[in-house]
Amino acid sequence: MIYRKPRLDEEAAYDRLVKHPLQSRAWGNFRENNGVSLERLIGFEGNRMINQMQVTFHPIPKLPYMIGYYPKGSWPDESALQALKEIGKREKAIFVKLEPDVSVPPYQETDLNQLQEFLLKHGCRSGRPLFTPYSFIIDLTKSEDELIVEMKAKTRYNVKVAMKHGVQVVEDSSDQGFNEYLELLSLTTKRQKFFAHTQQYQRQMWQHMKGAGMAHLLKATYQGETMVVWVLFKLGQRLFYPYGASSRKHREVMASNLLMWEAMRWGKKSGCTSFDLWGSLGPQADPKDPWYGFHKFKEGYGGILAKFVGSYDLVIDAKLYKLFRIGDRWRWQWLRFKSKLWRN
């Protein structure tokens, strides 16, 4: 396969090859507007456009080098890896991090071994993940009755509780709806003490992804007050749940539970066949993990816990990469220490 940059008249064809929102031109344009450099490539077999790749490049502080990031792309073959190396060299990248959009249920983990071995034999090293290696994926081709049956009993009960309390779920992809999301997000991050992107980042993301027809807002209200707002991405027949925020008020009405169920119904009506819940803990989730509650919430809806192939660094400069890994290890130890202090 031969890779090159797409021409202007190939942009629509490029988008038709995209399978994940983070590989879309809309997401790339958003990242470029935030000062991130970016390269797009298309792969041809003869005259047929077969594949696309979108790679962002991020400067290493105080050094004249970059790190490339190729998230949620298709499985790379040798020609794709070679193309990534070439653009990485042009951008003075030490390595390009790959996190392919390739997954299997955990009980089929051995199916990933061949793919992982391929990467290790072609200049990659196992890297620190940016995306979680697992995610629940719900099969939306099933009927509503089948989806309800596959929920955990407690989850079904909570959905019914929300209905009995009169919680309402509507799509509200207006600017006012997004402002409500930002207000709740600010409260959520302060309450749960986790990092969230700035409001400017969130607004630019929303403008680009909504403008491309991918981003939608669903909100749950109780007695006229907004309790929960979710940002959903729809691309082709796939639905994703990347962002959400909630109020601490009236938690007894289980608004989030009904919102998830209505998001599933919305996805089905919109022609989606799968719903990716954008990350979870693994099959042996630790109850002490700060994300355990969110993991159990997602688990309650009966999706398959998918394991992704993982994070791999395509090394371009071996010596600098070794030094980077040492420094990065110390950096993460310091960040974990600071996080513990902040949470306590």
Task: Set out the fold topology.
Layout: E1 2-4, H1 11-17, H2 25-33, E2 37-45, E3 48-59, E4 66-71, H3 78-90, E5 93-99, E6 103-104, H4 110-121, E7 124-126, E8 134-139, H5 144-150, H6 153-164, E9 168-171, H7 175-192, H8 199-211, E10 215-222, E11 225-235, E12 238-246, H9 255-269, E13 274-276, H10 292-299, E14 304-308, E15 312-315, H11 318-343
Parallel strand pairs: 4-5, 12-13
Antiparallel strand pairs: 1-2, 2-3, 3-4, 5-15, 6-14, 7-15, 8-13, 8-14, 9-10, 10-11, 11-12
Q: How far from one another are the termini?
A: 53 Å
Give the name of the CATH superfamily of the largest domain: Gcn5-related N-acetyltransferase (GNAT)
* Assigned CATH architecture of the largest domain: 3-Layer(aba) Sandwich
Describe the largest sheet: 8 strands, mixed
Strand arrangement, largest sheet? 6-14-8-13-12-11-10-9
Number of structurally distinct domains: 2
Overall geometry:
globular
- Spans of at least 5 consecutive residues with low confidence: none
CATH fold descriptor of the largest domain: Aminopeptidase
